[in-house]
Amino acid sequence: MALIVQKYGGSSVADADSIKRVAKRIAEAKRAGDDVAVVVSAMGDTTDELIDLAQQVTPLPPSREMDILLTAGERISMSLLAMAISNLGVEAQSFTGQQAGVITDEVHGKARIIDVSPSRIRAALDAGAVAIVAGFQGVTQHTNDVTTLGRGGSDTTAVALAAALGADVCEIYTDVDGVFTADPRIVPSARKIDRISYDEMLEMAASGAKVLMLRCVEYARRYRVPVHVRSSFSSHTGTLVMDPEGAAVMEQPIISGVAHDRSEAKITIVDVPDVPGKAARIFEVVAASGANLDMIVQNVSVAATGRTDISFTLPADDGSIAIAALTEHQPDIGYTSLQYDDTIGKLSLIGAGMKSHPGVSARLFAALSNAGINIEMISTSEIRISVVTRADQLDDAVRVVHTAFELDSDEDQAVVYGGTGR
Question: So where does ATP get bound (predicted)?
Fold first, then answer.
C-alpha cells in the first residue's frame, strides 16, 4: 500500500463530465489499495472570472477580501469532486486549506506556506476515505485570515501536503503527458522527458515552462518529494522529477529542454554615473518596490563621460512599480532617462550535461544567427543559458534551437489535451 497525493488542475476539472472522469481515476487508485489524498484547483477559468467580477465592483479590491473571494473557486471544485467520488461507492471528504492545516505567512495574494499540520487529513485517510483538499489557499498563523498562494499555488499545496504526510509520490495531473523538451504548442515534435532532476526542472520552471510552477519545484527539492507529472486525459506514464540516480547521471543528456517566457519586460537606465555604490542603490530601490529581477547587464563605461547604461529584465506585471520607484529616486541615482520595453522574449537552454560539454554556447548562438535572430541579453548558470530576443521572433527561436540540439522526436506529435499546457 502506498500513500499518494494527486493534484488536478483547472482544465482537468473544467466541467461536470471532467470531474466525473477525474473521480473515476481517483476511485480506481483507492480500490487498488493505495491511500489517496487529492488537491484540486478551481474549475476551468473560475479564478479569472472571480477576479473580473471583483474589478467590476471596484478597481482596487482589498487584498484580504480578494483572498476570501478567490478561495471560493477551489471550495466549489473540492465539494463537487467529493460528491462524484462518493457516487462511485468510495468514501470521500473535502477540506478547505484551513481545515487541512495549511499555515501561511500574512502576505495576501502571494502567501508562502510556513507549515502544514494535516491531522484531519491523516484521520480521514486512516478511516479509509479519500481526502480532497482545496488547493491555492491557507490560513495565517496568528490571525486566522484566509490567504491565497498566487498562481500555481495548488501545485505547491500538493507538494507541501505530500511532504507533511510522508507520501510516496506526488502526482501532478495536467493536460499534457508530462514534461517535454519544449512547449508542445510551439514545437509539436517535442519529446517527453521520462526523468528529470530537481535542479533541471527548477531551471525550466524559472525560465517559463508552465507545466510545473517554480515554488512547487523548490518545495519538492527541499523536502525530496518525488513528483510525477501526468495527464488526467490519458493513462500514459509521465515525467518523474526527483534526485538523479547513479546510472542516470552517467547517461545524462547534454540538453534536457528549451524553455521560453514572453511575460517579461526590459528596463534600461540610461547614462548612470559609473562610480561605486550606484548599482547597489539602483537595485535597493527596485527591491524595495517589490519587483523581482531576472537578467542584469551593464554596458562598458564611456571613458570620456564616466557614465554607463544598466539594463535588467523583470516580470512585465512588476514593470510599473519598478519604473515609479526609479523615477522617484532619479535625483539621488543621477541617471538621465529610463527606457521600458515589453516586446521581448526569453529563451533558455537547460541541461545538467552542458557543464561538462564545451561548445554548447557556440552551437546555440550559431543556430540563432543562422535564423537571423538577434540576441539582446545573455545570462548563464551552471546548467542554463538564457538569451533575450524580440518577442515576435521567440517561437522561431525555440524551434531552431530545439532542432539544433537534436531534441526533435521521430514519433507521434505531442498532445495538449486541454489547450493550456497546465
Answer: 7-10, 174-175, 185, 210-211
Q: What is the pLDDT of residues 350-377, one digit of tens each?
A: 998 887 788 899 999 999 999 999 999 9
CATH of the domain at 86: 3.40.1160.10
Cα(76)–Cα(238) distance, rounded to whole angstroms? 28
The answer on whether 174 is annotated among ligand-binding residues is yes
Q: Does residue 212 belong to any structural domain of this protein?
A: yes
Polymer length of the chain? 422
Q: 285 among the known binding-site residues?
A: no
Rounded Cα gap, residues 257 and 161, in angstroms: 29
- Residue 419 annotated as lining a ligand binding site: no
What's the predicted TM-score (pTM) here?
A: 0.86
**323 in a structural domain:** no
Sign of CA pseudo-dihedral 174, 176, 177, 180: negative
Contact yes or no for 224/210 (Cβ under 8 A): no
Q: Is 278 annotated as a binding residue?
A: no
Q: Is 7 annotated as a binding residue?
A: yes
Host domain of residue 68: 3-248
In a domain, 166, yes or no: yes
Q: Measure the CA angle with vertex 320, ends 151 and 268; round to 5°.
A: 110
Is residue 290 included in any domain, yes or no?
no
Nearest to 205, CA basis, from 158, 133, 253, 151 = 151
Q: Which residues, in sequence order, are bridge partners of residue 253?
A: none
Q: Is 211 annotated as a binding residue?
A: yes
Query: Is 175 annotated as a binding-site member?
Result: yes
Q: How many domains does one find in the chain?
A: 1
Count the Cβ atoms, other than its own, within 10 Å of residue 292: 11
| Structure confidence by residue, pLDDT tens digits, 384-420 | 999 999 999 999 999 999 999 999 987 766 666 665 4
The helix (run of H) or strand (run of E) holding residue 40 is strand 35-40
